[in-house]
């Protein structure tokens, strides 16, 4: 156990920082006079105190963090922080169980955006601010996790994206790498976040609304301050701003870092994954628009386009905002949208799912297999952006895909065993593993996760965490190998 | 086009043989006096005449068949034979469309066992004999395809099972290899089929019933002579015989060939895949039995065990017989059963799905990935039964799995687009791609494929063919590369 003290020390530090971020909802509470400042102050005190305690208790054994400590650290951060993130919710939402509060905090910090709450409008505004702010914090963690930590650990073939990373590449030490990468990524993250905030304000939102929905948009989270989600605004301007920033957040943030470094947009246009992402979004919106008009869901092209654009991009980017109850559309459309959310976002974005670059590698490998069947002696390596992809990376990507399928199956089976109907069970697992949020049926866009039993809620929390930690980073802790040394 | 004449010549020969097999239902019709001898005679004449015409027309250009001709030949055999197999159905079932007749023949020859017919009891017995006999013929084709042809072509990593094959291994010429392998496999196939026939007769079936259900059992087909499937017999003895022979047919027939050659059962007990198969069946029956009792579906253990044993083994082995409407069981059970049918049978059996050996390789690769994450420099090769599996085989198996997932998704989406509900759409595609037969919902065990529109029926026919031809053997014909020389 003492061997892991350096990991716990970092966790303690992260907890203290997390506690400090509670100053943001506390500040809002103060200026909005919603009367729950004390709750936030208490939560903050508890979080910082426990974080400091952990930090101090574990500070003595100081060994350099090794790459494989990253598995434990990432899992601890995403499972422990929600415990503390849940405190303000437990204090100020009457009758909320720990199960539900933890789910809500996990949903925020994994940027899933599924909720167990209704009557959001009646909650203190700063509670909604905190729910959404956790999405922004989660997003900060995710881009560092995805761009710096997981590629270093070689999870799911993500080492192939190393070249994109800001910061020192050849340094195998965890801490400096994370620190330098984080600095670069967060700079561009906050720059875009500021633009998003001003965009929503321009579109007519109040400052608190603009802030909380900016947080939720940047993290592709999907939590909103209204039960009706974005239908509450009923504003084309708001929807357009949301679309722009959902699309921007679906791209690898390392690209923005390079754009900023080079003062040129070229890195974006030259990136295959980003181009594919925009093309896929455009094509999907077009298909769903035509489908909706053809089925007479919306008689007017413009209405169909508006609703298709917002809701398709929202689900496909794993955001999960809604302006209509798209579960009522003929079933092909919502199923297509949920299918897209499994792979449509770029690696290094705040999105979930297996990511476009992995899908691309898998497709290229299938293509190569067809060639091999006809010309067994002419097997060429798979390439990505001109560079040869090592077989080991392909194996890692495929293992990722297999475990993804296994978790999808096991999660659905587990929910079926608890008595949930099959549509809700399957789509809840899809929506959670991809960190999207709304599924269909009982967990559809017009409903939420409130109707689930405690056991079902826990299953969903676990699936959200598994998805966010790219499966392997969490599952590896359950192998005896990990704990052997 | 002339380049493919040697392939068409073989197809002509196969057609002639297929025409000859119509003598079997013709003989039954004669002895049972059901008055449709002439129909079979006519069908037989047409099939043999067209087969002979093709054979003679294409006999002049005589080049040796190459391995890659196997793709075209396999696809032609399984798409063209059903056209002729449908003739007797079209002649004697009033109002039957070609779409439905072709579906029924594809369902037989791919040993899927899905049906678009109701009122089976009122059909001439020899028509039911023919439907089921096509399953037996299909099964003969499948074991040769799976044991001799596909491994030679390297489809889906099946080259790893080469060692099991009777016949010359190093011969790259298609024809002698197929001939010798077929002789060995069909000897044991017919021996077991005879035992099955006598078993059903012993259990109390009439000769025609015993014959047709033997055919359907050996091919793991699932077509029956009664709308109620095996519930029509309501006999424990019949069910036990069916269970025994469904299990036997789920094993690699190359193993039986070796058992026969060596006069020893050891090849069976020593085979990892076979042992896994039996263990998986036993475990699944146990789980479903407990589940049914726990949910009070059947208050008595013995009843639960009886129904679980028959229906779970039937679906998991991709047979598709039913003694109860298991779609009415709490949804976890039928979904588990459909999940099993995707991978539970052995390579070289008459079953469908991705096969146990492929699943085993995939699992081993995932396991290796976990090890690699912790010890990047200690990557060991994947082994199967002590032998190292080449990376290329792993890539092939994974490509197979990916295309399997893609067809599952595309097929479901296509059916959703036609307006089918999601449960029926998804389970129909699962049941067709795995050549199982009954799905859930509109295509559940108490219903059948009759309610589908023509377009939906064609989609299902295509998915059955894709599944049976192990996806690649058919899909490769749609690549431009295949036709380039
Ligand atoms: K989300
Ligand atoms: K079948």
UniProtKB/TrEMBL annotation, chains A, B:
Binding site for K(+): 111-112, 220-221, 318-319, 435
Domain of life of the organism encoding this protein: Bacteria
Keyword field contains Metal-binding: yes
Localization of this protein: Cell inner membrane
Pfam families documented for this protein: TrkH
Gene Ontology molecular function, alphabetical: metal ion binding; potassium:chloride symporter activity
Assigned keywords, A-Z: Cell inner membrane, Cell membrane, Ion transport, Membrane, Metal-binding, Potassium, Potassium transport, Transmembrane, Transmembrane helix, Transport
GO cellular component: plasma membrane
Spans through the membrane: 7-28, 40-58, 70-95, 132-153, 184-203, 240-257, 277-298, 331-354, 399-420, 455-478
Membrane topology annotation: Multi-pass membrane protein
Similarity comment: family membership: Belongs to the TrkH potassium transport family.
Function: Low-affinity potassium transport system. Interacts with Trk system potassium uptake protein TrkA.
Protein name: Trk system potassium uptake protein
Species for this entry: Sphaerotilus natans subsp. natans DSM 6575
